[in-house]
Amino acid sequence: MNEKKENRNPFRRVSHISPVKDIIEYSFSRSQSAIAKKQKKRRTREEKIAANEKAKVTVLATEIITRLDNIVTKFPSIDQLHPFYREICDLIGGTNKIKKILGRISGISRQIEKIKVELIEKLDQTNHPVIMAEIRREAGGRFVSLVKKAQGDIKQLIRLVKQLKAVPDFDVSLPTVVVAGAPNVGKSSLVREISTGTPEIGEYPFTTKKIIFGHWDLLYTIAQVVDTPGLLDRPFKERNIIELQSITSIRHISDIIVFMFDLSKETALPQEEQLNLFNDIIEKFPETPFIKVLNKVDLLSPTEIEEAQTSLNQDFNISTLTKEGIPNFTIKLKEALNQVIKTNEKFKSLLQLEIAEEYIHKSDEKMDYDI
Predict the structure, then answer these.
(1) Residues near 289 by Cβ (< 8 Å), separated by ≥ 6?
(2) How far apart are alpha carbons 326 and 207 in whole angstroms?
(3) CATH architecture of 14-165
(4) Residues 6+ positions from 331 with CB-CB distance below 8 Å
(5) Which residues belong to CATH 1.20.120.1190 in the chain?
(6) Which among 169, 159, 200, 153 is positioned nearest to 12, based on CA atoms?
(7) pLDDT tens per residue, range 154-174
(8) 176-355, what's its fold?
């Protein structure tokens, strides 16, 4: 179970990041109630005051350091992220920029520790209550000044984590089918048709549209089926750098791409533009198997379907409305997925769970229970 979670969006595991104001307020409230531990040895009034002042300085520093260190240690190691999530992280916040932010926060934590040691030594060198109070106030002032330097970084990190947590919770260890095509060709309908259960709908961080995301039972594992509206539905020459980077990230989870065509009167793009889009995607995903599907055949005449076969050379003719061709398509898609799993090194662990072929489809055989 834990291994499955490790394969999904790592940013979902980032704990709440408190803003600087909350870190300061909480740490001061903890330090104000701090008192030194009782000693068996009898102490003078000055010694008790010194011990309590040291406790306040120590608790204040420890609380701030703990919260700053948690921000750094709870953030996933960028270098160890799966390429899909690493590219999205770079797309949203810039990996080098994030590393610098985490480095600065960690540096402030170390500075506070250094100042704490310095001021504890100063408290050891005096027995005057007024001077001790001044040293404690000095500690508070210097700590706050340092933490406030991280205010901009922490604000930015809170914003970035919120965006990164919104990235769909793909399991990068599972085979994934990406459904592509021009707008309104029936991509979402197909995802809903072949996915088991109710597909999830989530907002992609680099598009204003929604992503449709479902699961498909393959007997010994599960496949993910994804429709990415706004990402793979128009020519690449019309895209900005952010969109192109987001498409690159999708490449890391695409094991099969189902490209859908619509040649009915409802089509949003002419046939030529749909073919250009298909060629664009092939160029961007050179190593990914493609399946070409003509949808909405219920709106086409037999002659139009025959002409489409000549011009598109599609693998399947379907209608997501009438379900025509869907059963045969799903059988062939499942076969293609199984072939990908057997030949792709990244699915090596899944093959260890595969049921031996001689035990499959034997449920109709008569069993002899005689002993």
Answers:
(1) 255, 256, 257, 336, 340
(2) 30
(3) Up-down Bundle (1.20)
(4) none
(5) 14-165
(6) 169
(7) 999 999 999 888 887 788 888
(8) Rossmann fold (3.40.50)
